[in-house]
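Subject: Protein entry, chain in single-letter code together with its fold tokens

Area: Proteins and the way their chains fold up in space.

Attached in line: The record itself begins immediately under this heading.
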Amino acid sequence: MTRTAPVPEKNPNARPLMQSSKDTTNDGQSSKRDPAVAGAGTPERDAFSDLFENATVGLHWVGPDGITLRANPALLAMLGYTEAEYVGRHISEIYADPEIGNDILARLMRGESIRDCRAQLRARDGSLRDVLMSSSARFENGGFIHTRCFIIDISERVKAERRVQARDMVTRALAESRTLDEASPLILAAVCRQLHWQVGGLWLVDERENVLRYVHMFGSPRAPQFEVVSREHAFAPGIGLPGRVWAEGKPAWIADVTEDRNFPRATAAAAEDLHGAFGFPITFNQKVLGVMEFFSVEIRPPDAELLEMMEAIGSQVGQFIERWHAEEVLYRTQDRLRAELADAKLLHEISAAMIHEHDVATLYNRIVDAAVTIMNSQFASLQMYYEEGEHAGELRLLAHRGFSPHAAKFWEWVKPTQACNCGIALRTGKRVICHDVEKNQDVAGSEDLASYLETGIHAVQTTPLLSRDGSIVGMISTHWSEPHAPTRRDLRMFDILARQAADLIERKHAEDALRESDRRKDEFLAILSHELRNPLAPIGYAAEIMKRSERVTPEMQWVREVLDRQVHQMGRLLDDLLDVSRITRGTIELRRRPVALRTVVNEAIEAARPIIEQNGHELLLDIPEDPVFLDADATRLGQMLLNLINNAAKYTEPGGKIWVAASTDGGAVTMRVKDNGIGIPAEMLGRVFDMFTQVDRTKERMEGGLGIGLTLAQRLVMLHGGEIEALSQGEGCGSEFVVRLPKLEVDASIAPELVKSNGHDIAPLRILVVDDNVDAADSMSMFLEQAGHEVRTANDGLAAVAEAERFRPYVILLDIGLPKMHGHDVAQRIRQERGNDVIVIALTGWGQEEDRRRSREAGFDFHLTKPVDFDELNRLLGAVNVREGNDSASILPH
């Protein structure tokens, strides 16, 4: 069967090949004749006709309307037309690209000349001929008459050029590509585009199955169904075009695949209008590695030169494939080494993080992220094993990647009886790998399988986490969205991660145990403080009552001073002990406000005066006269300075000197506490701020203590953004502590207001004292009555509620640890009945931050700890006399 292009009907307006010797215009008037035509029968006319008719190059004329007027035999032979088929046709039917023909005509009409213009003309059989065209136009009286085109057939030269270009492009593609997947589309595209084939395909030999398998196809947008059918085929030797080339080991040509009996894809090819085809083997050392095939919409006769060239290309591609296989092995090895290096780096980073990172939740997340990376999975989970409590023997989910909220909730706790991998690993104590959850009988029909599939999990591996003594502390799992079998290399690296995860969980257990021990210690200290404060309170109250008595003997005065001094010392020791615990745990809160330096110094000295006077020390002060302010918690800063002064008094022999000085330098305030006491040995200077450290317990002149005063002083200075330094020339040379704090700049107009006293005149108040310690309640009542207040007492919670209803006090001093009804409940009951027209003050042995928070939530206005400082109590009672709402909280807050 021969396919030819249809020949259109001749244009009725076409002029005859040879016109009469006289041309006429449309109006019938004669016009000047072309010199080539003029003088018919003349020697010039005969010579021109002979030249036109016998020229070895193609010649044709085209009129201004694009219609061909004349063509010589050489051109007609070149394109395969008869004169009747060619003359009278429009150039758009002759040029493969009509735009080129129209452009040439337009340029000629503008008077340009065309030299060596490349174009493609359509031959009668539908094929394209590459030509080189030169042309000029004939004008007469300014009017365009016709073109004069010389046409040389360069098809063979262009074909040779295109084949060279195609081979060069294939060589370049092979040189620049790393893999066959990269090279194959470039090779197929180069051949198709350069040699005018519409579709190209690549097949490779599958030695295991002994078939050719589809790899890639170029031109599939033009033949989509043909590609689909090709993908579905696997050719045995001798079957189809690829199988025939494979079996024979040499190129094959098919003029029309739709007529070939050994072409299984003929129906699909016919549907896509594919006809001509050829294939050639991809070989290396005479072994066929694959086949390339190409298809055309035309029926093409065999081209031996093309097949010879393509056979050489097949050898090139074969060499590339062998090199690619060798390099692929090398690349895989390099990739594996790079992956192992990256995993090792990742594991090292986790090890470093476990040293420096204290947030275990962050570390848990880093471990599951690393699990996903190392195992190339889509999901991962980390679980901890619980030995005690409600969930003893179960696994708790610590962190995960990829789980839906429902899956995370479902696997929050895993029992050893569950069908999931974790349950099996928990029962057996061994690693469990499930390559395909849908084919695993252990999980079939379980809720765990439903949760796997809902989450998108189709493969799982679970590795038990073992402590150093071999007991299970948790599980680490990875999950894949497709059936999967982890490699030995993956599991080897994963085991290192599992060791890290186990160590982390063991560390968490140790930290939890330490935290629990610390919690119990704090709880013990709080109870101890409470139990010690309760008996101290009535002693302090009694001493204060004795102080106010008008008839006191010298002996009683001495007793009162001893009691007062020792009660304050005991209270201060309890406060320091609890404060160090709070600071260590980071639970202490500073209540900063502008405070005058002189106020802090005066109050600290006043508090230290008893121990200074007892030891007969000489106290020397050097404080700036001008007001200096700090942004500080006045109570805590005074506590720090008091601890430094007490430390100086404790380590200075009776009759010694203590200096307290302060100065400013730019934006800083420097305070110094110096003494001429026993001094600090050089080896101790770096340790004096450590908890429970004392310079020398063997010194008889040294007073007792817990060794926490300087620790607390240092922590309080640091909380205020300052620094503290200990100085000494050695034993017997005294010591000096230097504190530097940021200075607060205060507007001069408000400075006087900041240094005013907070004292108030105290008017008589109705006060209810509630304490289960009868001595404490009675002694406090006696003290308040001496101050002129009307006082009632109650010794349990229920009595307090009843007495508050009868007495209607304005102030209630309420203990918290009461029998029959807890103090918090009493405060809430009274607050519900009285609203804000009563002041409820906690007076208790419980003084930690958590105690203050709970009392505030229960409705207390203020929180005082036993033994109460009577000056503070008087200031507070004076403040509540003028209280509006709850504004007095700024005077003495919780």
In short: Residues 1-40, 697-702, 882-894 have pLDDT under 50 and may be disordered. The CA atoms of residues 4 and 309 lie 28 Å apart.
